[in-house]
Amino acid sequence: MTVKPPELSEAELDEIVEYLCGPDYEEKAALQALSNSRLLRLLLENDRRIDDDVVAHAIQRKDKECIRTLLHFGWDTNHPLWDNPPLFAIDDEDFTRWLLENGADVNVRPRLDQPVLTNAIVVSDIKVVRLLLAQGADASHGTLLHSAVSRENQQEGAELVEDLAQRGADVNELRHTNPVAFRQQALFYLPTPLCLACDKENIPAARALLRNGADPNRRPLFRGYYAANAVERARSGNNPELLSLIQAARSKT
Question: Which of 1, 161, 218, 243 is 20 to 30 A from 38, comparing alpha carbons?
């Protein structure tokens, strides 16, 4: 149950502002300001800067009134918080829609040149993912198919593979091969979506990828060198169904 904060009189607000603007006011403000949007407004009117901690707490609480106040004082909904914009923190459809209506960019790419959709596909409710796509999220940029393969609900992930492939996602793209990400990730494991599906024994996603043209012979990179392809990975595993699926696809290439 949400507890509504008590209304404060003007005198009480003045007293709190005086208290917060004393020694260590920055730390105190971060703890107190979000309890009441009127208090937050007073703090900002007294030239208090909008720091990431205050915004992050408002986002985590989904406190629309406080966020409206922050917007009024010039906060940018696409300003990164700890490397990521607020849309990366969303996990429900209503709050996502509200952020989009208030200026959040569905295609912002703050970190590793990866869009919001990359993270949402892995962890967010499927309704959030559908909303982002409906609002114009670019399906051709970012390791979206890798994210779909990594989704906990494999059936939803497979459905997203189909959708993303139809929207232009490259089914044979190595992970993190855009110029920004590759500079930082080149020596890590960079699989194809199909190789990742084999690693995770994600048969629904593997089927969807193969239906959309995934190449079982395409090799991933590991520490800058070519590594085992999907066929070899399936052989080294202990999943006869996956191996049969991959071998059948290879025979057609």
Answer: 1
3-class state of residue 156 by DSSP = helix
Domain extents in the chain:
171-253
Contact 191, 177 (CB under 8 A): no
Digit-coded pLDDT (tens) for 29-41 = 544 655 667 777 7
Residues 55, 75 contacting (CB under 8 angstroms): yes
Are the beta carbons of 221 and 227 closer than 8 angstroms? Answer: yes
CATH number, domain 171-253, options 3.100.10.20, 1.25.40.20, 1.10.510.10, 1.10.3210.10:
1.25.40.20
Q: Tokens representing 43? A: 């703090």
Q: Is 69 left (phi over 0), alpha (psi -120 to 50) or beta?
A: alpha
pTM: 0.79
74's tokens: 């010039």
Quote the tokens at residue 25: 């006011």
Alpha helices in 21-111 (DSSP H): 25-32, 37-45, 52-61, 64-72, 93-101
